[in-house]
Write a structure and sequence with these properties.
Strand content: 15-25%
Largest sheet: 5 strands, mixed
CATH class of the largest domain: Alpha Beta
Distance between the termini: 16 Å
Structural class: alpha+beta
CATH superfamily of the largest domain: Glutaredoxin
Shape: globular
Order of helices and strands: HEEEEHEHHEHEEEEEHEH
CATH topology of the largest domain: Glutaredoxin
CATH architecture of the largest domain: 3-Layer(aba) Sandwich
Helix content: 40-55%
Length: 278
């Protein structure tokens, strides 16, 4: 029994270390601001922290039903979590939304009761029908009552999108060749008045930290700057440029980690088998 528990613990530790090493290695190039380490498509891409700045509440969007709404319609009483994605994204956007969903499931606060969520597409080509489909999916997976009244999926025109993304420091580029966006991932917590209170970077948002940020922002408190660990969503030819070289090295390292983990597993199993026979 104890041997089985030890084996499980070893395997879990190996898996966690592998994941951490891969994530940290992937994130390191994303932090570099030197233009020589980024492909042209990623120049200027990132999320600046503009704490205590006011987002423009007069911006016009469309909700998932196609109704015209003002951004200010969702402010005034509760803090708001802002998630900027685009609905046709084939890479990190879905992963980031899934990460937000998992955090919400662990959170004791309920969407629509203690806070609101705005998932806003920064692609002006996205329209209400696809926003409605996304809402149905995530509200359904969240499963808590009242979420459909508190989790909103918005689309808008280029002008409204640009003003909102500029206000929160969200910078992205569009690649007409692939018809995709290069962007970083993260969420922004806003006060009931619409001021920027806290940033979370990446695709995983610890529920404890998110709860604290919501409590602080509900009292119109502004958080402190946090370390930036940016993950970029970008389609780039891996055979060209330094960015491709970085990705190749990440994949090589991930392969080495996998081999080491499997070797450790086989060694532990072999020793366990010998002890069992003895």
């Amino acid at each position: 029994m104890r041997q089985g528990q030890r084996l499980t613990g070893i395997l879990q530790t190996a898996g966690i270390l592998s994941s951490l090493l891969f994530l940290l290695t992937a994130a390191r190039p994303a932090q570099a601001g030197d233009s020589t380490t980024r492909p042209p498509l990623l120049k200027g891409v990132g999320i600046d922290q503009r704490l205590n700045e006011q987002v423009p509440l007069d911006l016009l969007f469309q909700d998932e039903e196609g109704r015209p709404v003002r951004l200010g319609d969702y402010f005034g009483k509760k803090p708001v979590v802002l998630s900027l994605v685009y609905f046709s994204c084939p890479m990190l956007c879905t992963t980031a939304e899934n990460g937000l969903l998992e955090s919400l499931k662990d959170l004791k606060f309920d969407v629509g009761k203690e806070f609101e969520i705005l998932t806003v597409s920064f692609d002006p080509e996205d329209k209400p029908p696809v926003a409605n489909a996304k809402k149905s999916l995530y509200v359904g997976l969240y499963t808590r009552r009242g979420a459909d009244k508190g989790w909103h999926f918005l689309t808008g025109n280029e002008s409204s999108i640009r003003r909102l993304t500029d206000a929160v420091g969200f910078h992205y580029n569009y690649d007409p060749k692939t018809r995709q966006f290069a962007h970083a991932t993260g969420i922004v917590v806003l006060t009931p008045e619409g001021k920027i209170s806290r940033y979370f970077y990446g695709i995983h948002y610890p529920s404890g930290d998110l709860r604290l940020a919501l409590v602080e922002s509900s009292h119109n408190k502004i958080g402190s700057p946090v370390d930036q660990v940016l993950l970029f969503c970008c389609q780039y030819d891996p055979a060209v440029g330094k960015y491709g070289l970085i990705i190749s090295r990440i994949l090589q390292l991930a392969g080495v980690i996998t081999v080491v983990s499997l070797g450790t597993f086989m060694l532990v199993m072999f020793r366990f088998d010998r002890r069992a026979k003895a």
